[in-house]
Amino acid sequence: MFTHPLSLVIWTPIVAGLLVLATGGDQRASLARWLALAGAVAGFLVSVPLFTDFDNLNAGMQFVESRPWIESLNINYHLGVDGISMLFIVLNSFTTLMVVLAGWEVIEKRVAQYMAAFLIMSGLINGAFAALDAILFYVFFEGMLIPMYLIIGVWGGPRRVYASIKFFLYTLLGSLLMLVAFIYLYFQAGKSFDILAFHDLKIAMSVQILLFIAFFLSFAVKVPMWPVHTWLPDAHVEAPTGGSMVLAAITLKIGAYGFLRFALPILPDASIELAPIMVGLSLVAVVYIGLVALVQTDMKKLVAYSSISHMGFVTLGLFMFVGSDLNVWAIEGAIVQMVSHGFVSAGMFMCIGVMYDRVHSRNIADYGGVANKMPIFAALMMLFGMANSGLPATSGFVGEFMVIMGAVQVNFWYAFAAATTLIFGAAYTLWMYKRVIFGDVGNHHVAEMKDVNKREFLVLALLGLAVLGMGLYPQAFVEKMHLSVNDLIAHVAQSKL
């Protein structure tokens, strides 16, 4: 067991990224790739003990580290994970490894900078999930914007500058109010930025509402919830394959995690009071955005809108109160859905990237009959398509089923509306799959396509195994989070005014 595992999962990829940057220009691109791969493998390996050594019988923070950072303001380098945040760190480290492999041959210019951006962003994201000091969280939360901004803006498509600026401004403006909320809580907690100390505060209802709005504007943009979702399709369409994989698999989860770590435990009364609004916005995302996905002609846009719809399921689960108590089925289902969506969305965007590298088009109409030329790829894409549709035995089914189970306890019509995602998800995913993969060979571009190479197969196979593993044995994930979720529910129940 490592002495400081959380510092290792944060700083290993960051240091590796800086070393990759030091390799210089594209004349040493091969060295940059291998160094990036070594850094990504090391980053994943140091995250594995968080999962294997995690104590399922301990609901509190584990692997805690704390030392002074800015003593004059009582800001500390304070880290720790529970059964909720630990899962996302492991997911992020795994996804980073997949992204490095995905961009191995595809990225030909500024290779070192591309690989370094993902490694540094991976460390910053891990820091956000592990931070137990509000300012430390804010630094990591904002810091991860810079690498993603560069990834979209430098290696993206024709409208990359527009998409990167829109992504940056949406997220930055939303999070400024979060900083104001942290400063208010700092004085209420006796001049402390300790997030766990914030959990014990008793705050007047009127103030809770204002603080909730501040957190909502920050985290809802990140999820993204309807109607502040418009930056995501643009960002996905313009981002390179690796950027889309990380954006969908990891960065969206930071928003939902923020609701779990800040809004629910610190502002329980406001969360209950505003839960109907959150449920309403979530159901709009599930139903309306599912219908929007049905009419997309660009594969990336279709999967991007699919992500918004599936993340609507997550926020629905987080605010599915039974009376004035949180719903264990819905909360655990939301977390499972977040992890599952990480695997499934990364797989879907990788599949689109594989086809784009060969044909240089994302339009559904430019394909047809791909299975005739790429049978192995067609089978792997079918797996991710089925998971995206919520097929039982895949990870996509588990979280949605648990959230629907939780919703039934609250209101049958909530559950009914939420369950439509299983219909719409199957409709838009299978519609796309049918037109792209089946039928006669569409044109000479498709006729020239070759099946997946060993690198592409490795990435898709590993993601596919994760999708199947979680779908067949979700208990391995649920048992890690169960006590932490119960502790959150008990805390919210006790903290109400």
Any overview of this molecule?
This protein has helices at 5-21, 29-52, 85-102, 111-130, 134-143, 145-155, 160-188, 195-199, 205-222, 231-238, 241-266, 268-294, 299-318, 328-359, 370-373, 375-388, 395-410, 412-437, 444-447, 454-472, 475-495, and strands at 62-70, 75-81. With 497 residues, it is mainly α. It has one domain. It has a two-stranded antiparallel ribbon. A hairpin with a 4-residue loop joins strand 1 (62-70) and strand 2 (75-81). Helix 2 (29-52) packs parallel to helix 4, helix 5 (134-143) runs antiparallel to helix 7 and helix 12 packs antiparallel against helix 13. The protein is globular, with a radius of gyration of 22 Å. The two termini are 42 Å apart. The mean pLDDT is 87. Keywords: Membrane, Transmembrane, Transmembrane helix, Ubiquinone.
Tally of separate helices: 21
Instruction: Give the low-pLDDT segments.
Output: none
User: Strand order within the widest sheet?
Assistant: 1-2
> What is the straight-line distance between the termini?
42 Å
What percent of residues adopt helix (DSSP H or I)?
over 70%
How many beta-strand segments?
2
Residues in β-strands, percent: under 5%
Radius of gyration based on Cα positions: 22 Å
Secondary-structure element pattern, one letter each? HHEEHHHHHHHHHHHHHHHHHHH
Count structural domains.
1
User: What general form does the structure show?
Assistant: globular
Category by helix and strand content: mainly alpha
Domain NADH:quinone oxidoreductase/Mrp antiporter transmembrane: 131-421
Protein name: NADH:ubiquinone oxidoreductase subunit M
Transmembrane segments: 6-24, 31-51, 83-104, 111-129, 135-155, 167-187, 207-225, 246-268, 274-295, 302-322, 334-356, 376-399, 411-431, 457-476
InterPro entries: NADH_Q_OxRdtase_chainM/4, NADH_UbQ_OxRdtase, ND/Mrp_TM
